[in-house]
């Protein structure tokens, strides 16, 4: 980030290569659409670029970039609420991006059916709870980091994550019973 | 359940799209930029705001009953207004070490505490001298000029803070703006403390103290547009 604000375009591309995949994963789980997530990712990095003078040297830029992505998603949701509610036929598009296949760090392959069911259940959660589960359970952020990204208090983030986790468990249980 | 979350968190990260043409075009003309230096910004904001406040006091004259008021109260109240100015501005501008975004949660707390505390203190602690003036509840609206002067005093710190935090706050911008407003309002309170000879409870509490609340609300309403990326 320091090299980037000093005018090194290569450093920006390195930052993009390092951060964009994780950020895209977060945005896909939030936006429920690959196309919308791609668009939000581009908007996020454009905002980061235009706001780079607000960076504080020596600081970790990741929570700030995540918070910009969160803000971009919220603004987009408010702008066109219907864009978030995807028609049923677009649901597999999300699953196509996150396959549940191992990323090379896991020994055992995950169950793709289970992953798909979990993603669908995740989509049924309210936005706040979904974000809390995605950030704390899937992206490995601490509750404090997740709260800073989402612009809420640590206590509220804990409650959202707990409720989201419980709701996800109920939704998955109901799906299993239905099958 | 944890297996399911493990399978999701361990899923392969999606491949991001190439950079958008708009961003690629901006990168083509990328140059170095000056980054934010929070403590330097705080020092600058405090410096220019205090010079501005001193100018206002000089322009509108120092209160006539100053010599008749108890010195300990005069100093303590002045320090309280000064701390009320510096602390919210510090929390609004300076992040934790290693962070980019300021402590908006604590900034929010400081804005709320300052907005309530100075009203309550003004209502209950308001010594007067022989040349002090009284408006009372009946003529409370006549004190509107103090409210205007106080809010005008808050303008410089709020505008400076908004400029320093331009595009820096993706979240918590409203609370940070409220803290800047509350800090500016306290600077306004300090100006009124040195200028206004009216010492009745409703005026000191609701008008002088109210400057903090009004400035915080106005700042929270208008500043976030400038500070969001």
Features:
heterodimer; A: 179 residues; mainly alpha; 0% strand; elongated; B: 229 residues
Overall form of chain B: elongated
The portion of residues assigned to helices of chain B is 55-70%
Task: Give me the oligomer status.
Answer: heterodimer
Please tally the β strands of chain B and state the result.
Answer: 0
- Proportion of residues in extended strands of chain A: under 5%
Mean pLDDT of chain B: 92
The largest sheet of chain A, given as strand count, sense and whether it forms a barrel, is: none
Can you tell me about this structure?
The complex is a heterodimer of chains A (179) and B (229). In chain A, helix 3 crosses helix 4 and helix 7 crosses helix 9. About 12% of the residues of chain A have low confidence. Chain A is built from nine helices and no strands. Chain A is mainly α and 179 residues long. Chain B is mainly α. The mean pLDDT of chain B is 92. Chains A and B meet through helix 2, helix 3, helix 4, helix 6 and helix 7 of A and helix 1 and helix 2 of B.
Topology:
The complex is a heterodimer of chains A (179) and B (229).
Chain A: H1 2-5, H2 9-31, H3 34-50, H4 62-79, H5 91-97, H6 112-123, H7 127-138, H8 143-150, H9 154-178
Helix pairs in contact in A: 2-3, 2-4, 3-4, 4-8, 6-9, 7-8, 7-9, 8-9
Chain B: H1 2-9, H2 21-28, H3 38-60, H4 71-93, H5 104-124, H6 144-164, H7 173-195, H8 201-208, H9 210-222, H10 224-227
